[in-house]
Design goal:
The structure is a homodimer.
Chain A (H helix, E strand, L loop, with lengths): L2 E6 L10 H12 L5 E5 L17 E4 L2 E4 L1 H11 L10 H33 L2 H15 L3 H5 L2 H11 L1 H6 L13 H15 L11 H14 L2
Parallel strand pairs in A: 1-2
Antiparallel strand pairs in A: 1-3, 3-4
Helix pairs in contact in A: 1-2, 1-8, 3-4, 3-6, 3-8
Chain lengths: ~220, ~220
């Protein structure tokens, strides 16, 4: 196997949970490309591939190394043009940048505040120390202080999904009749929440919850 | 001239201000298509083209009539495929629906609350009566009550533009190197605010303000 995806996990035996790594998992499945996933802990990342990147995902494809989920999606699109498209044209690629900017500025801060203590508790001790220090500096508060706002964040979460919900009145995926990378960008945030034990953020009858299930089905059916 | 765009204006002599009509103005200019704009008052709309649509924009193109800004953009793309593309592929068209859903759920409610009294005051007396009744029912408050929250809405406005601002770190337009209909969808909301006397919502050095100016330049240069 020459294709390796380095992703992120908690302590031994926990599922890979990084939203950015999930985007790449779905992009690879969308393209129908085999890969071996190698989940590592936070503090292992600097040791990967001679310190190639400070963050995962990192994709090794033969002798090529690429980091950053969006850059990997562009690489896959350019390298495997005969496989199903991740963007369906230049306009789809450009506009996916807006979807990414929206997800990172709207969904990710919310999921961070909902899940940060759960994530901490999933990690190995050495990763816990790194995670606490870096996230508390970023958030300007201790993890325990952030947790006090968790219920309010959960209550506010469905309203933040309004643009997806309203888009779904016109079509089943952001990509139209079938998912594109723009869908996987948003999917990553929901999967991140779910795999760190934060399920039930949406009512099961919410069209957004149904869209999430459709994305899962699409990529599982290959 | 066989191409007519019915749009919206206030009292005689005021500029057309509807965000949805501006999207179509820019789409037509983008395609390099001549048209005659016929701005009407709110209460004139039901009389247009034998009551074809309850809302503007309405485009008459020869013997074809189309309403709804997104439907008009799709019509123009399909009818004039040899002109510059408004979507740059199927993915761009589909993802523009997400941009529309975001703009309608995030920017439009904000601009409504900032501009609603200004808009009312621009209208002819008969349109003022219609506008007050329909908007007060929709907003659940009198126009005067809504105005009391105007300064707070203005203060909160730049933060609502964060997804555009962050996208602009990667590319000059939502459409990538040049604007697409997705840009015009967002542009419409800013132009609506500006033409109803609500300038200065963004710092002139804000990248989002610079993007707005670039959109204007692009379509003015044809």
């Amino acid at each position: 196997m020459s294709r390796i995806l380095y992703s992120l996990r908690g302590a031994d035996g926990t599922a890979p949970f990084s939203p950015h790594c999930w985007k790449v998992v779905l992009a690879l499945r969308h393209k129908g490309l085999d890969f071996e996933e190698r989940p590592v802990g936070f503090t292992d990342i600097p040791k990967l591939e001679n310190g190639f990147s400070k963050t995962v995902p990192i994709l090794r494809d033969g002798d090529r190394l690429i980091s950053d989920s969006f850059a990997i999606a562009i690489y896959l699109e350019q390298t495997y043009p005969d496989r199903p498209s991740l963007f369906s044209g230049e306009g789809g690629l450009a506009t996916a940048r807006f979807v990414e900017a929206w997800a990172l500025s709207t969904l990710h801060p919310a999921v961070t505040r909902i899940a940060v203590k759960h994530i901490h508790d999933m990690l190995s001790p050495v990763d816990q120390a790194y995670f606490r220090e870096s996230r508390e500096a970023r958030l300007g508060a201790t993890l325990e202080e952030v947790v006090t706002g968790r219920e309010a964040e959960i209550a506010a979460f469905p309203e933040k999904c309004t643009p997806i919900r309203n888009m779904l009145k016109f079509q089943p995926f952001i990509g139209g009749d079938r998912p594109l990378f723009a869908d996987y960008i948003v999917f990553g945030a929901f999967q991140w929440a779910a795999l760190t034990g934060n399920t039930g953020l949406l009512d099961p009858n919410d069209p957004v919850a149904n869209w999430f299930e459709r994305c899962l089905e699409f990529v599982e059916q290959g």
